[in-house]
């Protein structure tokens, strides 16, 4: 999950790259007539979104849908095919009171992951491993808060608000901004702001952000590959109500028998090792042409179904031994051999993102292959901030 969800949004952050191909029919509602709204300029809409730093209380359902268009890789053994990790639909239930009281619930088949914050305490619960991570924020040292913010910055956007913030953060001279016809999203009339790169080396055609006409809350973000008529990625509210959620949604007690990890609550100065959530080695380029360099080993962070031992018990540590590794090899083997003055490697092409595998490194970007080739050996190391 780390590789799939992080890779969707990481390259480039300025363009909110969320890989994909087509949108499932169950996600798109029946076409409705465009609502009649007073005209607004791009500058007015940009200012309106900027003014919604304080999001009103709401409850809703967000559906994120993506399909990379990768070659079909068969499921092997107990492992989950890598293509299923970077495609399909994910549903997020949103309960939002304010920045210190919210719950994001991500139900999956036979499992659920919840991120809950209730004032000075935050919880991350993962039902598949029956594990809970506790974050005590009220008395945490400044360094701890900085670390948590860094982790939050590495996580993929789970709501249209987060996705829109990433897209709009880099609006500048390299971006064409316009306004299209008004739309209806989750029953709410909305303006549609359109961002497009000026540089033809970007594989992104446009990013469309639907903004609630009444509250200025982003309701939908769509990413279109260059020349495509259907969105490659859609993260959208399918239902939204501007009512305060019940306080019970923010109360959490670890289930009986769950493993509780309190290391995230320890004060700065106490040495605790935790894995990086994105594993980025460095970046090359800026804005729409950003390329991320990541180690090939990041693929092993994509969790598969636990392998079963001879006694029938689960062995979480062996998730990528044997059959799981075959899935990784199949993914990498799907690339086309390429070479140049930069060396040799394999190019994995999708409708939106290109991946270049060179040795033990992968270069990922929503860019033409020539930009990936130029990045080899020239990525700037990722910093600590």
Strand order of the largest sheet: 7-8-9-10-11-1-2-3-4-5-6-12
Number of helices: 7
Order of helices and strands: HHEHEEEEEHHEEEEEEEEEEHEEEEHE
- Rounded to the nearest angstrom, the distance between the terminal CA atoms is 23 Å
Report the β-strand fraction as a percent range. 35-45%
Quick take:
The chain is an alpha+beta fold and 385 residues long.
What does this structure look like?
There is one protein chain. The protein is of the alpha+beta class. The protein folds into two domains: 2-247, outer membrane lipoprotein receptor (LolB), chain A; 276-381, no CATH class. The chain contains seven helices and 21 strands. It has helices at residues 2-10, 42-50, 82-85, 142-154, 160-168, 323-333, 369-375, and strands at 58-67, 87-98, 101-108, 111-118, 121-126, 131-136, 175-185, 188-197, 204-212, 218-225, 233-241, 259-261, 282-284, 291-295, 307-308, 314-315, 336-340, 343-349, 354-358, 361-365, 380-381. The chain has a twelve-stranded mixed β-sheet. A hairpin with a 6-residue loop joins strand 8 (188-197) and strand 9 (204-212). It starts with a helix and ends with a strand.
List the helices and strands and how they pair.
Elements: H1 2-10, H2 42-50, E1 58-67, H3 82-85, E2 87-98, E3 101-108, E4 111-118, E5 121-126, E6 131-136, H4 142-154, H5 160-168, E7 175-185, E8 188-197, E9 204-212, E10 218-225, E11 233-241, E12 259-261, E13 282-284, E14 291-295, E15 307-308, E16 314-315, H6 323-333, E17 336-340, E18 343-349, E19 354-358, E20 361-365, H7 369-375, E21 380-381
Parallel strand pairs: 6-12
Antiparallel strand pairs: 1-2, 1-11, 2-3, 3-4, 4-5, 5-6, 7-8, 8-9, 9-10, 10-11, 13-14, 13-21, 14-20, 15-16, 17-18, 18-19, 19-20
């Amino acid at each position: 999950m780390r590789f799939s969800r992080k890779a969707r949004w990481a390259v480039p952050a300025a363009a909110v790259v969320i890989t994909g191909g087509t949108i499932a029919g169950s996600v798109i509602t029946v076409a409705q007539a465009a609502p009649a709204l007073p005209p607004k300029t791009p500058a007015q809409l940009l200012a309106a979104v900027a003014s919604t730093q304080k999001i009103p209380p709401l409850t809703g359902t967000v559906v994120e849908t993506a399909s990379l268009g990768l070659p079909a890789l068969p499921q092997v053994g107990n492992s989950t095919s890598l293509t299923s990790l970077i495609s399909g639909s994910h549903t997020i239930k949103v309960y939002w009171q304010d920045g210190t009281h919210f719950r994001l619930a991500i139900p999956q088949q036979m499992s659920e992951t919840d991120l809950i914050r209730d004032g000075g305490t935050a919880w991350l619960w993962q039902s598949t491993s029956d594990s809970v991570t506790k974050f005590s924020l009220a008395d945490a040292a400044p360094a701890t808060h900085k670390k948590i913010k860094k982790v939050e910055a590495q996580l993929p956007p789970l709501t249209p608000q987060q996705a829109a913030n990433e897209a709009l953060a880099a609006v500048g001279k390299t971006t064409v901004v316009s306004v299209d016809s008004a739309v209806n999203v989750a029953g709410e009339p909305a303006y549609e702001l359109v961002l497009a790169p000026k540089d033809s080396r970007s594989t992104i055609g446009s990013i469309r952000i639907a903004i609630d006409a009444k509250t200025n809350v982003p309701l939908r973000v769509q990413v279109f590959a260059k020349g495509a008529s259907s969105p490659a990625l859609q993260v959208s509210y399918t239902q939204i109500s501007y009512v305060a959620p019940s306080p019970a949604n923010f109360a959490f007690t670890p289930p009986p028998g769950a493993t509780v990890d309190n290391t995230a609550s320890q004060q700065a100065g106490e040495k605790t090792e935790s894995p990086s959530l994105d594993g980025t080695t460095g970046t090359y380029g800026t804005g729409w042409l950003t390329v991320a360099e990541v180690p090939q080993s990041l693929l092993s962070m994509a969790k598969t179904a636990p392998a079963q031992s001879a006694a029938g018990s689960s062995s979480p540590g062996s998730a990528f031994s044997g059959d799981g590794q075959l899935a990784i090899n199949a993914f990498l083997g799907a690339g086309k051999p390429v070479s140049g003055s930069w060396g040799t490697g394999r190019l994995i092409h999708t409708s939106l993102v290109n991946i270049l595998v060179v040795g033990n490194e992968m270069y990922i970007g929503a860019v033409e292959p020539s930009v990936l080739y130029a990045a080899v050996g020239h990525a700037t190391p990722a910093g600590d901030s």
